[in-house]
Amino acid sequence: MVQPGDPARNFSLKDQNDKTFDLYEQAGKRILLSFHPLAWTEFCAAQMKSLEENHERFVSLNCVPVGISVDSRPCKQAWAKTLDITHTPLLCDFWPHGAAAMKYGIFRDENGFSERANVIVDEKQNVAFVKIYPVHSVPDIKEIIGFLEK
After folding, report:
1. What 3-state DSSP class applies to 149?
2. Cα 131 vs. chain centroid, distance in angstroms?
3. Structural domain boundaries of the chain?
4. d(CA 55, CA 38)
5. CA 84, 75, 114, 23 torsion: positive or negative?
6. Which fold would CATH assign to domain 12-16+37-149?
7. Quick one: three-class SS letters along the chain?
8. Contact 90/82 with Cβ under 8 angstroms?
9. In degrees rounded to 5, what are phi and psi of residue 60?
10. Is the separation of the CB atoms in 83 and 45 below 8 Å?
């Protein structure tokens, strides 16, 4: 698993709107990689809604939050519409299956999806924060915002 101080590992994934998100193209901004196991689940929905609800706060902190799971683009597109997510990219780590999660060492082979995890990448493309959460929980968004405010 990546650790704070490690160089961020680049990936390019499509979001729910078929737009490509490339991590290295985000240099100069902080990025919150909010990994969640699967769309259409209660805990994952709450996790993604917390990103969307705090969109303006993230912008003010020079941070781009993205959700990442192994779900396909059509799945993420329908889910974003259902959750009324319009600002937060929901990235599809669909194929190769879980490749981005594997690069960060948080893919759960036995389940076929990622850990529930938050990874913050700093402006210089280094990992600044990593935390794994229980699968059946919602990460505390105040903890992430507090870290970004430091």
Report:
1. helix
2. 12
3. 12-16+37-149
4. 21
5. negative
6. Glutaredoxin (3.40.30)
7. CCCCCCECCCCEEECCCCCEEEHHHHCCCEEEEEECCCCCCHHHHHHHHHHHHCHHHHHHCCEEEEEEECCCHHHHHHHHHHHCCCCCCEEECCCCCCHHHHHCCCEECCCCEECEEEEEECCCCEEEEEEEECCCCCCCHHHHHHHHHC
8. no
9. -65, -20
10. yes
Residue type, 122: D
Contact 64, 90 (CB under 8 A): no
Whole-structure pTM value: 0.97
pLDDT in 10s for each residue of the chain, 150 residues: 999 999 999 999 999 999 999 999 999 999 999 999 999 999 999 999 999 999 999 999 999 999 999 999 999 999 999 999 999 999 999 999 999 999 999 999 999 999 999 999 999 999 999 999 999 999 999 999 999 999
In the block, residue with structure tokens 């290295």 = 24
- H-type alpha helices, 1-150: 42-53, 55-60, 73-83, 99-103, 141-149
